Amino acid sequence: MAKQVDLSASLKEHFGFDTFKGNQEEVINNVLKGNDTFVLMPTGGGKSLCYQLPALILQGTAIVISPLIALMKNQVDAMRNFSEDDGIAHFLNSSLTKTAINKVKEDILAGKTKLLYVAPESLTKEENIEFLKQVKISFYAVDEAHCISEWGHDFRPEYRRIRPIISEIGESPVIALTATATPKVQHDIQKNLGMLNAMVFKSSFNRPNLYYEVRPKTNASKEIIKILKNYVGKSSIIYCLSRKKVEELAETLVVNGIKALPYHAGMDASTRAKNQDQFLMEETDVIVATIAFGMGIDKPDVRMVMHYDIPKSLEGYYQETGRAGRDGGEGKCIAFYSYKDIQKLEKFMQGKPLAEQEIGKQLLLETVAYAESSVCRRKTLLHYFGEKYQVKDCETCDNCVNPKEEFEAKGDIVKLMSMILLLKERFKADHVINVLTGNVNTAIKSYKHNEIPEFGSGDENDEKHWNAVVRQSLVRGFIVKDIESYGLLHISKSGHEYLKKPASIKMTKDHDFDVVEEETNT
Ligand code: ADP
Ligand code: ZN
Asked: Is the entire prediction scored with pTM above 0.90?
């Protein structure tokens, strides 16, 4: 047990803050007790403090594993601002000279260093492991812990070696932190770090001031211009998938009298920095960018984030739209969707390793579900993060503002869940739907599912209808996707209860974007 400390006084003394943000205090107490801790907090929530403060309080040096050199440097500088001794925080990575490394080691062995930031690549080096074996380590902090999971947005294979290396250096408690909160990623992290029993502190990922909307992608450029005409003098970001589209769209906007600049990784560094600065200084209203733009950019008053192309994952969508309205003011998030874009994205994946393709496909399916569904967008997004959003109508998304026509879904839900059970909960949604609709393909034949009497028992409705039933049953929590396999449909406890006593449930039809597209094109 750590000695009793006045945490508020420590917070004030070391960081100058008067109060803790969110559940920082509970997290810190858990770390101080020497327990494994898992923190899921959206960006800007104040994760760093959750390990910085205990590191200052506890004896020994905390090892902070962080993937980005630039991030490490910022954090070390920030820590030094609060201390008289520069030795209080150091980093160890490939950018350091031999002399600098020796100074770091000297300070650590002298007991001056409370926080040592290391890149996973440096942590895996034998000489560093040997050195750290001599050090008294208070705990390990794994920052950006989603890098462990192939289902996260920034998978790094070195992150998977952290656990064995910790065992080699010497066991100490672990605190893992991330802003990626999908149940799949969370499970991967806990399993890989051997901390399935950790206390989990999860903040809400809801952003109440953001308005979510999906529009069919027909004449998107024209619509974007129309929207931006009402946002003159305000800051907007428009994301496109390709560099070429970024250039094209920025040009189109400029021609139409909108102050816009492009930003993507293929531009030279100085132009890129210049465009970014112009956006930050509000000399330009709009930045048209690939997802290279936005990391670490903290412009609080972005009023609009548009996605010209639908993103590859909902996680990415959440992070990118998250850059709107950080000051708590208005933030509109509009995505343009067409199924053709999804097919394009699938095509891009084709050269990749099979496992990666499979993950990419599953993540894309979630995006499709989000776009096509007429369920509250907020509810769908938060469900993706494993969070229950209980409010019936958020009032700040297109689906809540313009609800679709409802239908009685009791019979369909029962039929779907009975089929999932009949198939012994061993299949993904597409297969279950194929059995319901009586659609023969290779997989159906190999399982001989076309020979069971129930084959085609739901063929009074099409695949699209059944997809909507699956999605809405997922959001309601009647069915869940298996966490290990990701995708096999299981019936939850509440699903079993519903099956025993089915009650009337109204569902909404999915959007039919393809039809809309055809109509406007002719
Ligand atoms: P995250 O890593 O979760 O994105 P940070 O650790 O960078 O968030 O913190 C976000 C901002 O909140 C930083 O500017 C930080 O100084 C500030 N912050 C953190 N904790 C507190 C607090 N208790 N009171 C006030 N500001 C805080
Ligand atoms: Zn809503």
From this structure: no
